[in-house]
Amino acid sequence: MAENFIEIKNLYKKYKNAEDFSVNDISLTIAKEEIYGILGPNGAGKTTLISMLYGLIKPTSGSFSIDGLSPQKNGTKFKQNIGVVPQEYALYPTLTAKENLLFWGSLYGLNHKNLKKTIDESLEIMGLSKFANKKIEQFSGGMKRRCNLLAGTLHNPKVLFLDEPTVGVDVQSKKVIIDYLKELNKNGTCIIYTSHHLSEAEEFCTKIAIIDGGKIHAVGTPEELIEKVSHAENLEDVFISLTGKELRDVV
Predict the structure, then answer these.
(1) CATH number at residue 82
(2) pTM for this model (two decimals)
(3) Could you tell me if 119 and 207 lie in one domain?
(4) Neighbour-count burial of 19, counting CB atoms closer than 10 A to its CB (0-12 exposed, 13-18 middle, 19+ buried)
């Protein structure tokens, strides 16, 4: 059962008026215990793929399930199992950290008494307790990232989607975030992660799919991928070998 916690079969996505498929015949199985990296250059289809998986956009064709559920057939139950931490802050700048977390927790339908306890414990873990009653607009980038992560994980999701969770943060914040995520994973949350930080992905992920042009180019553990590509010393070498050196700036 673990092997098929997430099953993706022949998934395609073509946006209206687009010439090419953003996601082109992707099939994957992801086990519950994985920290699974989906890596690729700008415009490779990463964000489109994970946006379909957490139910934000509909596939053009193909199917997928998470723990046997799909957003089309099991809408509410499917959403309850999902946590999403987007690259943009999903926080209200004029509310305090605690007010933001109470708001997101109430959306997940969490019991108010338990929620307050969970929030206090979570803020403590993230080193944000003494800033609990400060407005988010007064927070540094690293503090916002840490609070953003808490907002997406208060309900203890079965699967967590992360888009660039450590972008623009200092080394100390990055360590706290990665340690928190590893603990979540150890306690049973499957993690799906996208990032441009390849050295971070190499250390953090248990398995990786490299995609480009909407297609999968390689799947394996970081060690397996490095071993497969001759002269590769790290994941960055593998990435360049598979996706080329051409610049991918998207306007």
Answers:
(1) 3.40.50.300
(2) 0.91
(3) no
(4) exposed
